[in-house]
């Protein structure tokens, strides 16, 4: 059975190769596409760290990147 890796913001951003600010901006509550409860979870209190499912985030970032590349290449034709 595979267990998803959930990390706090800094460690997740490092694992994904992006900044913490970029990762936070990708949340759906900030106009992004990473969904609460699936890609990230808030802590129990306002001061608790958010945690991120690295593999789900990586997949979502990949899919969004591929969509952007496809739409860009379609516009260039």
Commentary on this structure:
There is one protein chain. This protein is mainly α and 77 residues long. It has one domain (7-75). It has helices spanning 9-16, 20-25, 54-75, and strands spanning 6-8, 40-41, 51-53. A three-stranded antiparallel β-sheet has the order 1-3-2. The protein is elongated, with a radius of gyration of 14 Å.
Summed up, what is this model?
The protein has 77 residues and is mainly alpha-helical. It has 3 helices and 3 strands; from the N terminus they run βααββα. It has helices at 9-16, 20-25, 54-75; strands spanning 6-8, 40-41, 51-53.
Give me the secondary-structure category: mainly alpha
Integer average pLDDT: 92
What is the number of domains? 1
Contiguous low-pLDDT stretches (5 residues minimum) are none
Task: Write down the secondary-structure element order.
Answer: EHHEEH
Sheet having the most strands: 3 strands, antiparallel
Taken from the alpha-carbon principal axes, the silhouette is elongated
Strand order of the largest sheet: 1-3-2
- Strand portion: 5-15%
Radius of gyration: 14 Å
Indicate the percent of residues in helices. 40-55%
**Euclidean distance between termini CA atoms:** 45 Å
The number of E-state strands comes to 3
Number of helices: 3
Oligomer: single chain
């Amino acid at each position: 059975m595979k267990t998803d890796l959930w990390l706090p913001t800094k460690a997740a951003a490092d694992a994904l190769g992006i900044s913490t600010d970029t990762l936070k901006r990708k949340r759906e509550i900030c106009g992004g596409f990473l969904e609460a409860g699936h890609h990230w979870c808030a802590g129990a209190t306002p001061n608790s760290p958010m945690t991120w499912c690295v593999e789900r985030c990586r997949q979502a970032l990949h899919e969004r990147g591929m969509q952007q590349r496809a739409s860009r290449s379609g516009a260039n034709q």
